[in-house]
Amino acid sequence: MACARFVTLKAIHGTWTHSQLLRPRIHTSGIVRAFSSLKSPPSTAVFYEKHGPPDTVTKVIELPPVPVGANDVCVKMLAAPINPSDINRIEGVYPVRPPLPTVAGYEGVGEVHSVGSAVQGLSPGDLVMASPPSPGTWQTHVVKDKDFWHKIDRGTPVEYAATVTINPLTALRMIEDYVDLKSGDAIVQNGATSMVGQCVIQLAKLRGIHTINIIRDRPGSDDAKEKLKKLGADVVFTESQLDVKNVKGFLDNLPEPALGFNCVGGNAASLVLKFLRQGGTMVTYGGMAKKPVTVSTSSFIFKELSLKGFWLQKWISSDRKEECREMIDYLLGLIREGKLKYDMELAPFNEFHAALDKALGKLGSQPKQVIKF
């Protein structure tokens, strides 16, 4: 039976201090092995005790060493992204949330620091990623069972390894799972400048599939259009450009799309629906505008459109660990070959709260923020 202990959590930013009874590993799946001669180094972590606005409830703290059991691997984290789902978990609005108190973060990559006595196939110095993703990656050292870690090629850029699972995998699965697309077919999507949107463009192009892309009206939209076209986008429109009765007049020689992706909602979702061909399918995977998807009766009756939803968490949770890792390796291979890339901004861990402000949209549109430890 594990022995409970008191630990002191020392705030690095601000004057917050707190002593409370904690499980030795608040950042793992709940398995505790208190009797072990091997321990992790102390860890610096982004920690929260209650749900609420991420910029007010998160604290950067120091955690004491924890035991490394026989089947455990201690990983020195190298990079981890700030995803919208991370923010939603901290806010308490995401459907799946770790029990509190907890360390934030869900995706990331690191280097093996030490391994338990029964671990085979992993050694200190190996590059590994959390696969499938699991809570507690926003800290300098993470201890989890060996099954949580996936060894990857040392030549992989760490910022891509840290971010490949949530967004690129979402793009890949949506392209593969809903419509049997052939070379020459087309996809329409809103939120095209997002990481998923950028990946959709490149993965589609590799398959000979055209993309019709919709972006928000904002300063710098012309530059955004050019960047997407360099990635392989066929056409890019702002929402205001499509404020016409017949959007299909913009297609020129492109085929009517059979598949559409919506991560915005509201009017942007309606624009995706307008482009779809008879019997087309729109897949919703986000709702950045926080507005509902509104569908006309005629779209259902006369166009026979289908509306689907995609949630990567559910897909990953369906006992698909090996399948997931095969696809991750495929995506990382494309990255190493220069065939898949996307915008990111690396932020030193000691500037975490500045990166969080950018991720929260306080400074306008920003690239994906990736914490570098």
Strand proportion: 15-25%
- Percent helix, as a range, is 25-40%
Total of DSSP H or I helical runs spanning 4+ residues = 11
How far do the termini sit from each other? 34 Å
Mean pLDDT: 90
Which oligomeric form is depicted? Answer: single chain
Task: From the alpha carbons, calculate the radius of gyration and give it in angstroms.
Answer: 22 Å
Q: What is the general shape?
A: globular
Biggest pleated-sheet summary: 7 strands, mixed
Classify the secondary structure makeup into a structural class. Answer: alpha/beta
Unreliable segments of 5+ consecutive residues: 1-36
Catalytic activity: a 2,3-saturated acyl-[ACP] + NADP(+) = a (2E)-enoyl-[ACP] + NADPH + H(+)
InterPro entries: ADH-like_C, ADH-like_N, ER, GroES-like_sf, Mito_Enoyl-ACP_Reductase, NAD(P)-bd_dom_sf
Domain Enoyl reductase (ER): 52-371
Keywords: Fatty acid biosynthesis, Fatty acid metabolism, Lipid biosynthesis, Lipid metabolism, Mitochondrion, NADP, Oxidoreductase, Transit peptide
